[in-house]
TrEMBL record:
Residue intervals passing through the bilayer: none
Entry GO terms, CC: cytoplasm
HEAT repeat ranges, renumbered to this chain: 130-169, 210-248, 720-743
Protein name from the UniProt record: WW-binding domain-containing protein
Molecular function GO labels: protein phosphatase regulator activity
Keyword Repeat attached: yes
Pfam families: HEAT (PF02985)
Amino acid sequence: MLTPLGRLDKYISSENIFNRQMVARSLLDTLRAISEDERECVSVLERIDRLADDSEPTVRAELMEQIPHIAIFCQENRPSIPFAFSKYLLPIVVRYLSDQNNLVRKTSQAALLVLLEQELMERGDVESLVCPVLVDLTAPDSSDDVKTEAMAIICKVAPMVGRDVTERLFLPRFCEMCCDCRMFHVRKVCAANFGDMCGVVGGEAAEELLLPRFFQLCSDNVWGVRKACAECFMTVSSASSPDVRRTKLSSLFISLISDPSRWVRQAAFQSLGQFISTFAGPCSNTGQYFRDEAQWTGDTNDSNDSVPFGEQIHADEPCCADADAQKCLPEETQPSSRPPVQEIPEQELFNSFHYWRTPVPRIAPELELELELELELEDRRPSAPALDRKQLQELIENLEPHIDDPDVKAQVDVLTAALRATGLDSGLEDAFLEPRAARSNPFIPSCTALTDSIPSCTALTTLSHDAVLQDVVPQALLEQYLSMTDPSRAQTVDMEIARHCAFSLPGVALTLGRQNWHCLRDTYETLASDMQWKVRRTLAFSIHELALILGDQLTAAHLVPIFNSFLKDLDEVRIGVLKHLYDFLKLLHQDTRRKYLYQLQEFLVTDNSRNWRFRSELAEQLVLLLELYSAQDVHDYLRPLALCLCTDRVSSVRWTSYRLVSEIIRKLSSCSSLLVSFLGELVEKFCHSQKWSGRQAFAFVCQLSIEEECLSLDQFSEHLLPPLLQLASDPVPNVRVLLAKTLRQTLLEREYFLSSVNCQQVALEHTLVALQTDVDKDVKYFASVHPGSTRLNEDAMSTTSSTY
């Protein structure tokens, strides 16, 4: 008989390809068989290197699939096989990365990622052996397929090797590949992984080296590259500074939303809510800290750096009630001194921005000179070309003859919004006479803080919900997000655009803060009444998170009516409400919460009676709801639901409901009269039930009540133990089996039931003796011994009938 090493030598040189494949597949088993002999292990590793030179690609691919498993084995046996991986296995992986066969390259790339994830490679080996090979594979003379694959693997390896190695070895080549004019596949790979690369590099390197390339990719002539940029926009924004996010990325995203390609616009709108969520900062008053309504205050500003216009405005700050906005302006901006109206373009004459913006005070000449000097330095930095106001107007004029086309109409709407955003710059120069630094971009925070004496002016009667100015995110982005509920968007962009809006709405609400909920309220109500049930289902699954953001007052006023409508919706929508029923109700006031006691029974009725998971989820939620209500309410409203679920057709629902019953016993234990009444009802309905499953359920509830300490042992001995012992004469063996388990594994484990003080001790011993002489061998076994490996749930449910 051949030894493992002899069998390896026999088949490794076989002319049959399948034999050599089998050798590669059995290498790990061979190593395990000879793991105690260090010399033989080294011999096997040397033969692996020989097998790696096989001319058949399938053999090499099979070998590469086994490399990670062999590496793990070598790591576990490192004392006996030192340096096995770095000497024998790693060179094979590195060599296969540039293999001519596509299958072998793909397999080696997957193996490399596994080795890095499992931390089986030394950092020095990665930097000196792997990274240079990957960089060489992206050289201009490499084939297109190899270059694309290498760039993809570089983007995946970068987060694993860290910032230092990425900046020194990968970043220059990545920037070069972003500008590859010949192969758009390479640019597409770079665009798809741009966010991950920015996250690894971060800081100044990302803004100085990567962002200019990102601007170029967003204007690429291939729509697939632009689509990839839109999909990773959130991660790029997360790695950028707040100023870059506001001044550059927001306008760049608007250009993607107005892209000529429908697929790019679709990806941009899907990422819009995620991009808006990156504007939330922990140091600003827009962030939510998930505190109670009584403890939450808008005054969370520790610094003024992240709030536009240089001042943090509280949600509860009184606004100017006078309709004349001029009275709220400081003397420097009064129209009497410098009338701006004559010089404002007609289309911008009634721009809401002029009436909603907190005026910026005059800046000292010295500070103005410093700001102008900084602007001159910024002008020298490379930046992506942006369309000015004149170019936007020309584009709109060229598209107007084709306005009947829905796609063209969508582009005109987006360009009009961008035109309004640029109007904020041109109109402010004459309207408010701001210095150059203050009017360069409407979203740059003001360099000086306003005094507290300047009030905030509002004119809610003149603006619609989407024109309400807020200072958290650029207004143009918010307007585009609010337009996602427009029916025309479903025709021109994406049929699922409303669902994407609903999915990201909690993140947008968290970013804006509860003080700006009025900006989203109409949109949320529109989504809640959407004809597509998937949209309403998405809102139902997240309504508890939105309630946590808004607090109990806004929740009671605006979310409770929508929550009530979801309760009467389709089962696909109701399940979202049901899964987080406790999370939502606990945020409501006690009086409002109590009203839902009357509606809980509606969850027992479903569109499909076979939807048993719906009822199982109801039982689990009722367990949580017990803490929200008093013992009397639990007895009057939740007790009937629990007893109804205990008789469900499906076994899984019943066993979950038995735990609910035991928790109700715990809740009612504080009121003796309610407890005695409920225990008597359990004995009547279950212990004396005509169905054996009901009598078995009674034994299981008794077992749970003792193990979970739901009631005192005196109460159990008085009310539940006598009827429990009567089950010893039950004609069904399954009932007696569970009774024997309950007595042996639960009751007799308590010293209380073994002492002579207990009046039921004699009856308990006689019942146990009777079960030990039972005709059924399972009953006799569980009554005689105490299986140490047996658990409650496994034993109890093993004696049930089928699922139905």
